[in-house]
Amino acid sequence: MILLSMKAILRVVYPRISKKGGGDSMTYFQNIAGSSREEYIARGSKLTADEVIANSYMNAHDLAAVASKKYKALREAMILTIITIIWTIGVLLVS
């Protein structure tokens, strides 16, 4: 039970970064960090307003998907932790 709780907790705190990442999005954090400041500014300056908006929407969608998975894992971790605490108390009372 404790191991299941720990696994769920790790799923909450450990980032889920896909190998494909944000594609070539200008707002994806790994794409930003992988560029020099000058490269990022030069690339961003070439975008149209519609491209900036589209990049923002893509990033918001990706972040929402990650947050949804994290909250699901957090609920599981909380439930498993409560069950583990109740089980531990039961074992201690019986022994």
List the helices and strands and how they pair.
Blueprint: H1 2-13, H2 29-33, H3 37-45, H4 49-94
Helix pairs in contact: 1-4
Main sheet summary: none
Structural class of the secondary structure composition? mainly alpha
Q: Helical proportion?
A: over 70%
Overall pLDDT score: 85
Compute the number of structural domains: 1
Rg: 21 Å
Order of helices and strands: HHHH
Write down the oligomeric state. single chain
What's the total number of strands?
A: 0
Tell me what portion of residues adopts beta-strand conformation.
under 5%
Which term fits the overall shape?
A: rod-shaped
Measured distance between first and last alpha carbons: 19 Å
Walk me through this protein's architecture.
This protein has 95 residues and is an all-alpha fold. It has one domain. The chain is 76% helix and 0% strand. The chain has four helices and no strands. It has helices at residues 2-13, 29-33, 37-45, 49-94. α1 packs antiparallel against α4 (49-94). The protein is rod-shaped. It starts with a helix and ends with a helix. 3% of the residues are buried. The mean pLDDT is 85.
What is this entry, summarized?
This protein is mainly α and 95 residues long. The chain has one domain. The chain has helices at residues 2-13, 29-33, 37-45, 49-94.
